[in-house]
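Q: Hi! First time asking for a complex rather than a single chain. Here are the components, and I think there are two in total. Is that enough to go on?
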Amino acid sequence: MELLSNLGLGFATALTFTNIFYCFIGVLLGTLIGVLPGIGPLATIAMLLPITYKMTDPTTALIMLAGIYYGAQYGGSTTAILVNLPGEISSVVTTLDGYQMARNGRPGPALAIAAIGSFFAGTVATLLIAGFAPPLAEVAFKFGPAEYFSLMVLGLIAAVVLAHGSILKALAMVVLGLLTGMVGTDVNSGVARFSFDIPELTDGIELAAVAMGIFGFGEIIANLEMRENREVFTKKVGRLLPSMAEFKASIAPILRGTALGSFLGILPGGGAVLSSFTSYAIEKKISKTPERFGKGAIEGVAGPEAANNAGSQTSFIPMLTLGIPTNAVMALMVAGMMIHNIQPGPQVMTSNPELFWGLIASMWVGNLILVILNLPLIGLWIRLLTVPYRILYPAILLFCCVGAYSINNNVFDVFVTIPFAILGYAFRKLDCEPAPLLLGLVLGKLMEEYLRRAMTISRGDWSVFVTRPLSATLLAIAAVLLVIVFMPAIAKKRDEAFAEEET
Amino acid sequence: MRIRNHRDFWSGIMFLVLGVLFVIFSQAYQLGTAARMGPGFFPTMLGALMALLGLAIAWRSTAPGNREERVEKVSWRELFLILFAVGVFAIALPWLGSVIAITLLIAISATASHEFGWKETLISIVVLLVMSELVFVKGLELQFPVWPKFLVQ
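A: Yes, that's all I need. Here is the structure of the assembled complex.
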């Protein structure tokens, strides 16, 4: 039972005092920012990324960063249920039935089912990662540079196809990200590209600074112009325990949500958001009483909540085994590993087994902490929600600025955030989804490197990408995906599916 | 031909211009051959690809049947105040120290809200100053000057 001994090693790593402590800090922070609308896990992880330079053990750093990500999914649902505002995008659908349950006088059971569903999904997803990651990494060892290049092409295209919005625009955003990744010294020739004689730019543009500018600052400006006044549902939450009937009605949706989320999470571009939307649509479709949805159906809370947590966790699989980030948060996790000189990829499992298995085990520990933390502390989170945005955003700004500064102990990275904030704001106005840009940015130099190596080995013959069977298969899948989304019939269906989500 | 979706049209133009710029700047670097790629090869390829994508996006925005969409109004005031605050912080931090830099950052950025009030802002400056002393300086031991250079020396 290799799996058991691996998990044993994982828990031995995750259950040290330091790691439990940082896991706790991570999920606490995650819940905090999840509860607060207007600040997401992306900006938070970007803020804290520089601080992890200081941690001597990369395992501890990753455990904390991962905790922020899945902790935010938990916190997001609390806000969705109590305030009818999604704390995170992944909890948009929870507002539909969760808030109605709260209005019907059952906020407690809605919160409890969300937590139970998430915990169950988290447990299953943890086991799935432990089971699926090693064989996948095995495959990855057979990859040469041509296969890696094709895999990245597939990863980026799939991320674009499954994300919502215009595909052409998302593709252009990926390319813009790849190009931004080109800034800095070229490893092969030593030439400083696009650095315009600015010494700091020869090291490249920091991913964290880009993320803070686009997501942190861009979001603040967009929130300010909306000028909304938040209303908080401050009534007492009361009894948390769901009734027997509610519990029974939730079991099947939780199981389905977990399965769906686990599957969608592995796909590029999937993860928490797509999982929760799809789960809601399925629960509504197969329900005998679909008219109850939107009026406080507990199935509409249980399914999506399980799905988004499962999805957020299984999205770690491609990152950990292939080194390919499938969403923007994973791109930041890759950056977190690279800070500590760990190149994400199949070799991580053998070269840093305690990091790999420790991170996986910590997710289960983190989920347990979340259940313990969230249900009793719910009153505290509600109080937090009453803090007005006008007090909150200068504090977020401060954390971002100090975070950017501490990347290199240099104000240059603070300045870098400014043009990217302008770009981020422009993207919003022009309806361009910014997440693909981060994926491109983190993969840019790697992709170029693999392309160069593959072409050097083939002596300049481009056909190497289609004559090697593995590489050809990967590219064929990418091509099929592109053809499918551009077929008029499918394109229309896709638009409809996403339009449904937005209403 | 008429532009229907303005948001698509302008984003297409943005990608087109950026793509062309990247191609132009890449010409300063050696292109190399396919077997031995120089530093200019991949960026030139990508820049051209982005320009083409931009062109396609702009072209499609004129297609009949496209939904009519305008670019929303830009909130220059909020945009300027927030980024001005960040810029002032970055300039002030190295020689005026964190206390003054943070005070300026909070004070300037707070005025961007439509519910701005001086009293509240003063309180949050004090709270955030105490917190940053505890978290950033004591807790995380970040390296930055706390007081202005000329006072310390």
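A: The beta strands of chain A are 184-185, 192-193. Let me know if you'd like any chain examined more closely.
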